[in-house]
Structures are given as structure tokens and as C-alpha cells.
Design a protein that fits this description.
mainly alpha; Helix Hairpins; 97% helix; rod-shaped
Length: 183
């Protein structure tokens, strides 16, 4: 009974709903294709942003590593230069001692030869005191020379080690530079 009474009304309502909802359904199809396009574009942009973030992180790490290597190289270069100057100073002192020894020996010999010619007791005593002082000075040369030779050997070892370390740092720096230059 209700169906007969309300049947045409329900039928009209269904037809009315279908007529007005079908254009929305057809209109959604292009919107969903556009929406899919937008979603795909957003996904691509998001992927590119992630790649850029990773590239930026790699660049930051590379830059930090590069700066650290430069600083370590600078410090090591300063250390090597300091050792080189100290080694040169020790070698210069050794050279001076080598040149001084024959002169001192000759001065002692000349003074001893002159001692036989001096007969006056006061100048003779002064010359003897001077000869003792020269011999004492000459005796101090050998231990000082030995100390300098030991110092030279230690400095040379330390210098060679520091130079090797500097060379290794420069090699690392060169490798990093080549990595940066590579595409």
C-alpha cells in the first residue's frame, strides 16, 4: 500500500538524484586524473627535496672534513717548520764547534810554545792560567758536541716523522680535492 501511494514519488526522487549526481560523478573523473597528476608531481618534488637534503648533508660533511684537514695540515706544517729551524740551528752549532776545535787546539799549542819563552814569573803564571782555561774550554766542547749530536739525531727522527705525517695529510687533502672535482 505504501509502495503504491509513495512509489511514483520514490521513483521521481531516485531519477532526480541520479540526474544530478551523474554530472558530479563524471566531473570527478577529470578531477581525479588532475589530482593524480598533482600527487605524482608532489611525490617527485618530495623525492627531489630529499635528494637535495642528502646532497647538502654530504656537502656539509665534506666541507667540515675539508676544513679539519686544512687545519691539521696547517698545524703540522707549522710543527715541521719549527723542527726544521731547530734542526738547522743545532747543525749550525755543530758546524761552529767543528770549526772552533782546530782553532782552539792551535791556540793552546801556540800558548804552550810561548810558555817556554816567557821567563818572568808573573806573565808565566798568567800564561799558565790562560792555558788551563783554554784546555778547560776545549774539554767542555766534546760533551757539548755529543749533546748536540744526540739532539740532532732526535730532532732528525722527529722531523722525519712529522714530515711523513704532513705528507699523509697532504695526500688526504689531495684525495678530497679530487673527490670534490669529480662530477
Amino acid at each position: 500500500m505504501y509502495l503504491r501511494k509513495f512509489g511514483p514519488l520514490v521513483f521521481a526522487l531516485v531519477v532526480f538524484t541520479c540526474c544530478f549526481s551523474l554530472p558530479e560523478t563524471f566531473a570527478q573523473t577529470p578531477k581525479s586524473a588532475t589530482q593524480d597528476n598533482h600527487d605524482q608531481t608532489l611525490k617527485q618534488l618530495l623525492a627531489e627535496v630529499r635528494e637535495l637534503r642528502l646532497a647538502l648533508q654530504r656537502a656539509t660533511v665534506g666541507n667540515t672534513r675539508f676544513q679539519m684537514l686544512i687545519e691539521r695540515t696547517r698545524v703540522e706544517q707549522t710543527h715541521v717548520d719549527s723542527l726544521r729551524h731547530e734542526l738547522e740551528a743545532v747543525r749550525s752549532q755543530l758546524s761552529e764547534f767543528q770549526a772552533m776545535k782546530p782553532r782552539m787546539q792551535q791556540q793552546i799549542k801556540d800558548a804552550e810554545d810561548g810558555l817556554d819563552r816567557v821567563t818572568d814569573p808573573n806573565p808565566h803564571a798568567d800564561l799558565e792560567a790562560r792555558i788551563r782555561t783554554m784546555k778547560a774550554d776545549f774539554a767542555r766542547i766534546a760533551p757539548e758536541e755529543e749533546r748536540l749530536r744526540n739532539r740532532e739525531a732526535a730532532l732528525d727522527t722527529e722531523f722525519q716523522s712529522a714530515q711523513a705525517k704532513l705528507n699523509e695529510l697532504n695526500t688526504q687533502l689531495d684525495a678530497l680535492m679530487n673527490d670534490v672535482k669529480a662530477p
